[in-house]
Amino acid sequence: YRPLVSENAISQQEYDAAVAAAREAEANVAQIRAQLDAASLQLGYTTVRAPIAGRASRAQVTEGALVSQTEGTLLTRIEQITPVYVSFSQSASEVLAIRRAIAAGELDLGENEQVEVRLQFSDGTEYPIPGYIDFLDFSVDEETGTVDLRAEFPNPEGILLPGEFVRARIYAGRISNGIAVPQRAVTVNEDGGSVFVVDG
């Protein structure tokens, strides 16, 4: 209509009406695009992505069930398989003794300065891969007199299961200038252990 209105082939009023209709159509397109973006965003919320990798347990909500947006609804649990974290407690006095021995140089941690932990299953067999302590609580539980620790274990074959009961043994290092004695040479009584030494 622009060249027609300049030649007076159509009225200015028709041209203005056409321009207004074009602008209204553009506004409608922008509004529909905004609605499409909002719908795409809502559709994105229907796919729940886990922040960790692992194995999902059974579904807590069946397909088609009402899930509220305002309240968090448990859909399923994802159990992390590798690495696995083992939480355990240790006597505060034993942790203090280990820390003092390390500070005094009586225990040698080695190059990586990590404290090794080994696991034993409830049937007595040992888990073949060692783990390392990655968390040591700085407070003592007043009721039990223990300190909470956590060790991280690789679990490439999925042998360790979340929630499983295991025994953890701490290998805090090697004792410098220590003497190894066969167990059968040690006599244990109420006062502790004793070893006879043959001189001359």
Would you summarize the structure shown here?
Helices cover 26% and strands 24% of the residues. The model has no long low-confidence stretch (mean pLDDT 87).
Write out key terms for the chains shown.
200 residues; alpha+beta; five-stranded antiparallel beta sheet; two-stranded antiparallel ribbon; 11 strands; 24% strand; rod-shaped
Textual characterization of the structure:
The structure is a single chain. With 200 residues, the protein is α+β, with helices and mostly antiparallel strands. Helix content is 26%, strand content 24%. The protein has 3 helices and 11 strands. The strands form 4 sheets. Strands 3-7-6-5-8 form a 5-stranded antiparallel sheet. Strands 1-2 form a two-stranded antiparallel ribbon. β10 and β11 form a beta hairpin. The radius of gyration is 35 Å and the shape is rod-shaped. The model has no long low-confidence stretch (mean pLDDT 87).
Write the layout of secondary structure elements.
Elements: H1 2-6, H2 12-44, E1 55-56, E2 78-79, E3 84-91, H3 92-104, E4 107-108, E5 116-121, E6 131-136, E7 146-153, E8 166-171, E9 174-175, E10 187-189, E11 192-194
Antiparallel strand pairs: 1-2, 3-7, 4-9, 5-6, 5-8, 6-7, 10-11
